[in-house]
Fold this protein.
Amino acid sequence: MTSTLAARTRRGTAAARVALVGYLLFVGFTVWLPATVSSKVTGLVGVMAAWVAEAGVAPYQQSAVVLEILANVVLFVPVGLLLPFAWPRLRLWQVTLAGGLLSVVIETVQGLMPSRFPTLSDVIANTTGTFLGAVVVTLLLALLSRDPAASTDRRLAS
């Protein structure tokens, strides 16, 4: 690796780590604020569920459950996108495991908070989001690969 490429790679890794820390701070504030405060952030699910119900697509309760799960998936996609760039040697399963463990920590802390409650569905949705983000990185790296014979990035593919 040339020194210019190595320097660019180090800068990219550092930038990904900074972005990941910033994003995790956002996630922490979102999931660990008291329920009365966080509802202002997460209330979007209720608004969207009301729109779906008013449009006659699905009842409010059903759409709220589905949208809540989707919101948890989407919340962790950036984790799956950033982790492989922040730590390039991580494999797909390691990125997914890290997202799952992070979700378990979040849910455990929520279990200690009087206004919040942990759910297994959140852990599953968050882990799924991490996995999907990492898969996107894997596919992008494969598409951007200059060598068609090496169509997958070995870091994440194993």
